[in-house]
Amino acid sequence: MIPNSPKEYFEIAYRTGTDLWSNIPFRLREEYVRKNLSQNSLILDVGAGRGTFDFKLVSLGYRILGLEYIKNMVTRGNKEIKERKVNSEKMRFVEGDVRDIPFADAGFDAVVDTGLTQHLEDTDVVQSFSEIARVLKPGGYFILTLLSSDTEQFGLWQPRYEKNPIFTKEGLLYHFFKKDDIRSLCEKQFTLVDDGQEILPFYTDTVVFHTFLLKKK
After folding, report:
1. Torsion from C-alpha of 59, 61, 67, 71, nearest 10 degrees
2. Going along the chain, which residue ranges are E strands?
3. Which of 50, 105, 124, 159 could link 176 by a cystine bridge, Cβ 3.0 to 4.6 Å?
């Protein structure tokens, strides 16, 4: 079955267990959380998916809200919270879209985005960053992990050698970002504190991921 939209793509992937990205061992996002946020900080994970990282964070003493627009994953995540006997005051999943975050202004100490922005159209990226800035407390952190344009090969694509490395497959957009892209998108609302790269397996390729530590102005 060929998906007709990004949402359908993710619905199929989660249902069939082909969401291989859920198990990629991103190191930098956790490092940035642990170095910059005290325990009991409230973190919003946008595009939470299976909540793999969220369960890790709650085990480290943080409070987590996982935002996900695939309803079945929200139901599954909240069921898993009960099965694991995690304190429901410390963690829950909520259905919603990063372009219209269903939470009040300035409520979170940090927002984490792992691999969501890379699948958004440019106008949606601007809208989602605006929403993320809105729900962050002044001085709150935005930890962003996405595909880097330094990637040599991804399937039939060669992002590093493309002037504008944006591709579409099975209804899903893949944007391989340059560092300057993120700087220009975030400069009005965030200060770039730190950034780094990791070379990690993704499907049959070895891909460069870039993680940014951004602070709300």
Report:
1. 40
2. 42-46, 63-68, 91-95, 108-114, 136-147, 166-169, 172-175, 190-202, 205-216
3. 159
Question: What is the β-pairing status of strands 42-46 and 63-68?
Answer: parallel
DSSP 91-102: EEEEE-BTTB--
Average pLDDT value for residue range 160-174:
94
Per-residue pLDDT tens over the stretch 88-128: 999 999 999 999 999 999 999 999 999 999 999 999 999 99
What the block records as the tokens of 4 is 């007709």
pTM of the complete model: 0.96
List domains and CATH numbers for the chain. 28-216 (3.40.50.150)
Q: What is the pLDDT of residue 170?
A: 87
Report the C-alpha gap between 141 and 36 in whole angstroms.
Answer: 8
Structure tokens given for 130 = 């605006």
Per DSSP, 212 falls in state: E
Contacts for 43 with CB less than 8 Å, ≥ 6 apart: 33, 37, 57, 62, 63, 64, 65, 108, 109, 110, 111, 112
Question: Cα(66)–Cα(64) distance, rounded to whole angstroms?
Answer: 6
The structure tokens listed for 157 are: 């694509």
Report the helix count and the strand count for the chain, using DSSP H and E. 6, 9
- Please say whether the beta carbons of 149 and 157 come within 8 A: no
